[in-house]
Specification:
This protein has ten helices and ten strands. By secondary structure, the chain is α+β, with helices and mostly antiparallel strands.
């Protein structure tokens, strides 16, 4: 019986493979100030619409008064060496580059959300059906690309270049002389998110610890009311293939409320199909 692993449309893991590059990132949470420059630079670089981000900040208060501190964790696609999203994409729209980048091809994406559901880091989102620039992709999956367009020209990713505290380090992990390689191999504090999943994530953190922001379930349950309202507002005002999202709240998730949302989602689902084949026009 064969014990080889199926990699989908991607290169096999390249970490530690001689003669190959393996780009990765280290984020030092001891240096991060939570200024948001990385998220803003990314949003400008890719002209992202309101409500979606390729990189976002999670916050956690640690300790007990008076010995407390706030920890800010920039979160993005982990560009895994064994990405689940690639295996689950039915159209081969998402793939793994030979140098380790996990990338998207919008022209092949059908917006089925299989990759979004399978990602253990909640790092993917669906672009809205209507955008100010009609030339931009709509109703397809989007995520961090490690700024492959900049790295291929010898530039650092936009988030790394804009970091005011130099908390983000990017480079080739297979190069023993690179700064990122020295950090990962010499620091005792380096860890990754959800190592138990087996995806071999390539975004490393210094000072992450366990639980709190490192636990996606806890992060979901501990959200503030303001954040919940913000997500609800986004879901209400983004049509098209946002119909997989459920608004939260007692009146929204009761039996009647849930049935209403499900009915509306099914309506949008079939309307989207008819629009794609040219029977109706909604926008």
């Amino acid at each position: 019986m064969s014990t080889s692993r199926s990699y989908g449309l991607q290169e096999p893991p390249s970490l530690g493979v001689a003669g190959k590059k393996r780009y990765a990132m280290v984020i030092d949470l001891n240096r991060c100030t939570g200024c948001g420059a990385c998220a803003t630079a990314c949003k400008v670089e890719f002209d992202l619409p309101l409500g979606v981000w390729r990189i976002w900040l999670k916050e956690e208060n640690r300790g007990t008064f008076p010995h407390t501190k706030k920890v800010v964790v920039p979160t993005l696609c982990n560009h895994c060496d064994y990405p689940i999203c690639v295996r689950n994409c039915p159209t081969e729209a998402t793939f793994k580059h030979a140098d380790g980048f996990v990338l998207q091809r919008p022209n092949r994406c059908i917006g089925c959300r299989a990759c979004i559901i399978s990602c253990p880091y909640n790092a993917r989102h669906l672009l809205p059906a209507v955008r100010t620039d009609a030339q931009k992709p709509t109703s397809v999956t989007d995520k961090c690309s490690f700024c492959v367009h900049r790295v291929s020209r010898g530039l650092a990713p936009a988030c790394v270049a804009s970091c005011t505290a130099r908390a983000m380090i990017f480079g080739d992990l297979n190069d023993p002389e690179s700064e990122i390689s020295r950090l990962v191999h010499n620091s005792k504090e380096v860890s990754v998110m959800r190592p138990d999943i087996g995806t071999l994530p390539q975004v490393y953190y210094i000072g992450l610890g366990e639980g709190g922001v490192a636990d996606p379930v806890a992060c979901y349950e501990d959200r503030s009311d303001e954040l919940k309202q913000d997500f609800n507002a986004f879901k209400r005002n983004h049509g098209g293939q946002q119909f997989g999202d459920i608004e939260e709240g007692e009146d929204k998730t009761s039996s009647l409320g849930f049935a209403r949302q499900l009915g509306g989602h099914l309506r949008d689902f079939f309307a989207d199909i008819f629009e794609r084949i040219g029977i109706i026009t909604r926008h």
